[in-house]
Amino acid sequence: MPNAHTVDQVRAAEAPLLAGPPPGILMQRAVSGLVAYVARRLGRVHGARIVVLAGGGDNGGDALWAGARLAARGARVDALAPGRTHPEGSAALLAAGGRLHGPDPAPADEVARALVGEADLVLDGLLGIGGRGGLRPAHARLAAFAPPRRTVAVDVPSGVDADTGEVAGEAVRASATVTFGTHKRGLWLMPGAAHTGPVELVDIGLVLPEPDLRALDDADVAALLPVPGAASSKYRRGVLGLVAGSDAYPGAAVLAVGGALRGGAGYLRVITEGRLGAAPGDPHSRAADLVLRAHPEAVVTPIAPGDGTAMLAAGRVQAWAIGPGLAPGPPVRDLLATLLGADEPVVVDAGALDPLGELLGADPAVLRGRSAPVLVTPHEGEFARLTRLALGWDPRTTDTELARDRLGTVRRAAAATGATVLLKGARTLVVDPAGAAWANLTGSAWLGSAGTGDVLTGLIGSLLAAGVPATLAGAVGAHLHGRAAERAALPLAASDLPDLLPRVVTELLDGETAPKPGHCR
Ligand SMILES: NC(=O)C1=CN([C@@H]2O[C@H](COP(=O)(O)OP(=O)(O)OC[C@H]3O[C@@H](n4cnc5c(N)ncnc54)[C@H](OP(=O)(O)O)[C@@H]3O)[C@@H](O)[C@H]2O)[C@@H](O)CC1
Ligand SMILES: [K+]
C-alpha cells in the first residue's frame, strides 16, 4: 500500500537518523537513488547535458550532489543558482568538473534559457519540503524556464506545497518526480499533483508513523475485491438497489447499471423514476426500457416520482445507490429520506446530492443516527453546492479552499456532515468522517466526460452491497474505474468503461498489473 506523509511526519522520522553518524548519510542515500533514476532514464550519462536548478537548502544540495556524481561519470553539468547554494553540494560539483552560474552575479536569463534549451535533462532542486509560500521571484523565473518534458523534480516540484499540493504562483512542471523516504502528501493532491509526472520513491531508510494519506495499489485492490466462493449465491454476493434514471435522463441509469453489473453485484434491483401508465399498477419509464434493452439481467421496477413505498417494496437489498439521472427536487428528497430511514449503506450521487444537502441543512444530525454509512460522490461543483446547502459554506470560498488545501477541506466536510466523501477529480479523494483518507492514483484525464461518474456510482454500490466498507468501496471503485480508463480506446466514452472492467479485474486477480515498486502514476 503506497503511503503519503506530512512534512512534520517526515521531519520527525529524519531526526534520529540526522542526529547519528555518519553525517550526510540521508542525503547521500537520496542522491544515489536520484542518480540511478537519471542514469536509467538517459541511458547514457557520458556526454549528456544536465542543468541543475539549485536552491539554497538541502533540496539544492541533493541536486548539486547528483550533478557532481553525473559530472564524474562524464556528463556536462551546469548549475543555475538564484541565491546562496548548499556549500558541500556546490563544492562537490565544482570538484567534479561541473560549472556553477550564480548567485553573484545572478545567471542572466539568456544564459539560463540557452543552457536549459540544450539540456537533455533538468534537475529541479530549487525547493523541497522546506519551501513556504509561493516561489520568490528569482526562483520563479528559473522555474518558468524548466521544460516540462525534460525536467525531473527532486523530492517535490518546486513551487508545489509539499503538504497541501497548493500551487501559489509559478511552479515547476516535471515529467517525473524522484521523492525520498515517502510520498509527500502534496504530490497526491491537486493542483500540485498535476505538476509531478510519475513519482519514483527512493527508500532512504526512514522509520515512518501511520500515514496521513493512503493509496491502494493493484495488489491491495485484488485482495479487497469480493470474489465469489463455493458457498456464494446471487443473494449472498450482495443485492444492490440502484435508484437511477428518469424520463428526462434515462441514459445515466444504463451507465450506472453497467458499472454495477461489472462491479460484481450478485443481484441488481433497479428502481427508475417515470410516469404512471394508463392503468393503475402499470408504471412505465423510458429508463426502464433502456436499461432492460441494454442489461436484461437487471430486475427493473419503475416507480412514480417520490414513491418511497414502491421503492422499498422492490425487495430487500444490502446497499443502495441513488442519484444518476435523477432531477433534484422534492420527489428525490422524499426517496432519499426514505433510504436514510432504512439502515443500509447508501451511495449518494448526482441528482440526489442537492436533496441530501437540503436534508442535512434541515437536520445536521440526519446521518448521525444511522449505523450504516453514507458515501457521497460529488465532483468539485457538486461538492461546493452540497456544502452550501448542508453546511452553509460559501461556494466561492470553498473553491479557494479546495485549491489551497484540498484534503483539509474534504476532511472538514466529512467530519461536519457525517458522510464519507469521495471527491471526484484528477486525484479522487475518499475521506471518512473520522478523517481516514485515500487518494486514487489511477486514471486518465479522458475520464472527465459526461456519464463516467454514473458508472462509478454503480460500481461502488456493487462493492458496498458485497460488504466492502464504505471508504474502501470508494477507493477500490475509483481504482478500478481509473484502470479501465487507462485501457480505453481514445477518445474515451463513459459507455466504454463497463466493458473494460472485466479485463481489469481479471488482470488484477491474476496479479498481472502489479506496478513497479515505489512507482505510481
Ligand atoms: N533533511 C534530510 O535529512 C534530508 C533532506 N533531503 C532533502 O532536503 C530537502 C529539504 O531541505 P531543506 O529543509 O533545507 O529545505 P529546502 O526546501 O531545500 O529549502 C528551504 C530553504 O529555501 C528557502 N525558501 C523557503 N521558501 C522559499 C520560497 N517560497 N522561495 C524561495 N526560497 C524559499 C529558505 O531559505 P532562506 O532563504 O529563507 O534562508 C529555506 O531555508 C528535502 O526536500 C529533500 O530534497 C534529502 O536529502 C533526504 C535527507
Ligand atoms: K524540487
Automatic annotation (TrEMBL):
PROSITE patterns: YJEF_C_2, YJEF_C_3, YJEF_N. Its cofactor is K(+); Mg(2+). One of its GO terms (molecular function) is ATP binding. CDD domains: YXKO-related. Its EC number is 4.2.1.136, 5.1.99.6. Gene3D superfamilies: 3.40.1190.20, YjeF N-terminal domain. Residues 217-508 form the YjeF C-terminal domain. Keywords: ATP-binding, Isomerase, Lyase, Metal-binding, Multifunctional enzyme, NAD, NADP, Nucleotide-binding, Potassium. This is Bifunctional NAD(P)H-hydrate repair enzyme. It comes from Frankia canadensis.
